[in-house]
Amino acid sequence: xxxxxxxxxxxxxxxxxxxxxxxxxxxxxxxxxxxxxxxxxxxxxxxxxxxxxxxxxxxxxxxxxxxxxxxxxxxxxxxxxxxxxxxxxxxxxxxxxxxxxxxxxxxxxxxxxxxxxxxxxxxxxxxxxxxxxxxxxxxxxxxxxxxxxxxxxxxxxxxxxxxxxxxxxxxxxxxxxxxxxxxxxxxxxxxxxxxxxxxxxxxxxxxxxxxxxxxxxxxxxxxxxxxxxxxxxxxxxxxxxxxxxxxxxxxxxxxxxxxxxxxxxxxxxxxxxxxxxxxxxxxxxxxxxxxxxxxxxxxxxxxxxxxxxxxxxxxxxxxxxxxxxxxxxxxxxxxxxxxxxxxxxxxxxxxxxxxxxxxxxxxxxxxxxxxxxxxxxxxxxxxxxxxxxxxxxxxxxxxxxxxxxxxxxxxxxxxxxxxxxxxxxxxxxxxxxxxxxxxxxxxxxxxxxxxxxxxxxxxxxxxxxxxxxxxxxxxxxxxxxxxxxxxxxxxxxxxxxxxxxxxxxxxxxxxxxxxxxxxxxxxxxxxxxxxxxxxxxxxxxxxxxxxxxxxxxxxxxxxxxxxxxxxxxxxxxxxxxxxxxxxxxxxxxxxxxxxxxxxxxxxxxxxxxxxxxxxxxxxxxxxxxxxxxxxxxxxxxxxxxxxxxxxxxxxxxxxxxxxxxxxxxxxxxxxxxxxxxxxxxxxxxxxxxxxxxxxxxxxxxxxxxxxxxxxxxxxxxxxxxx
Length: 722
Description:
Its cofactor is Zn(2+). This protein has about 725 residues and is mainly alpha-helical. The chain has helices at about 10-15, 30-45, 70-85, 95-105, 105-120, 125-145, 150-160, 170-185, 190-220, 235-250, 260-270, 275-285, 300-315, 320-325, 335-365, 375-390, 390-395, 400-415, 505-520, 535-545, 550-560, 570-575, 585-600, 610-620, 640, 650-670, 675-685, 695-705, 710-715, and strands spanning about 225, 255-260, 420, 435-440, 450-455, 465-470, 485-490.
């Protein structure tokens, strides 16, 4: 679930901004470019080379929004000059003077983009959003200048088709392949009016993505519901205290703020006895971007879909989904749909069972209601407590955020050989006072691996959800670089002196996102562009790490209450017994979103009509139960409509779930989740190579075969079809 920097530039442009300026294989005139780079880097702090400890780190203390626009303008100009030098090099194209030279190009702009990412996701303001809206189309135009640089593409093609290719190492061949595809699949083969139209579409899409994101953030910031003391029935003490702090921070002293984020909405709907208030909070959350006002996203969705469809038609594809999945593990949208539809049938059947159980309980209590979506979490919690004697509030007493973090560090040490040591405040600069930083070292050698930044709390201007990011990846092609990884969450900041108590789902997500960080920290790739990944594979590593939350060493040593007492064994047994409880809801709400994502991109835009109607009618055809909704309704589906990283890729979580379930069985067959040989093979074949190896080949190297799809059905307790 990567929430990456959404700046809407093409793959090739991201390649170009990946690393350091060209220094040895450049055309005449490069000296002038290098001098200009040094001048700009000395005057604009956002472009400056990172200095200080740990191989250099971003300097957030000197970062100012006033410098962002000029940094982007200067950085684009510098990068384009480097690109021109590569494209016009009089020497025959080679891997070194073309592909590697592109890897080196664009460091100053890359630095500026990393600050952009923090302002966009962690510290957004109206001032930043104005710059974002202005610069997004200009960044898109810059990207098109690279992808449509005929001389540059000719050199890339020459390497791709040349004799040198056969002599390159496998990782170098993959880099050439990815670079070539990044051009060919993004309009480099087009000419004349088609090329101009492609660039214009990209530019307009960048504007639409920015507008969608801004509208969604507006509704998240402005739909806050304030409670009074007589409206707190059923709510856990920790949540009440955190809500009081959130209200005070918003100048509502003496009240309790339910913010429009999942981390606030979810526990409120789970525990609040006030049904009318549950409906209000539910509607606020699921109507984000869909309120019929100036911040409504429905018209933006339709324009985005039409432009995406037109753009891939220029490249000769039937629809956007076909284009997008061509280089994914699934290969075709039909294969992705086959997997999802098979699981969907089982999930819907389980949802009906869950609803029947909840309705029976509500009837037995004399509630005189029919279960509605805002009742699902509330009555599911009651059923859980009755069936498994399991109270989420009881469980959360043993899920303290600081202890969970230490549990993650333990797992990282046992599997990856990493140690984490927190840096004293002020050692490196951070973008917000609540951000903390740890040094990561190799347990055997003591060598620095990188830094890990944690931004745990929700605040105004921060995107909702949880995500991982990085400021720098591991490379060795120009000397070894260390990793600067980040994890970002939206836990409700506690009252002073109080621990952060989280739900089991939130604890699982915390481990999940840490898996993304470990994927970056364990990298052994040579070139920057190989630190990326194939979307329906990159979620696998993080989903797999969730499994270690319930392992004995973590449970026995890190799931402790405020008195330091470990979670009782009988409670652990109840949690394990309830492991597949409510699986219909969690699978169904996710799959509904993933199926809608695919439906939007496999249907001709002119047949969609308006998103609200299309969403409702499509879900009706699928047999969507009335008691649940999509995890991300269309007008708030940022994964799909704030950019293109997850567009027709949301299914990837399910694809990765198959790999996860199958890989978990490998550890179970070995007898332990800490089995040394299985752990070694996991890190060496599935984490460290990143995107330097085809994902299917990487998985076969770990498991000795392809993943078994039925492992997913076994894992979720659904009927298995052999």
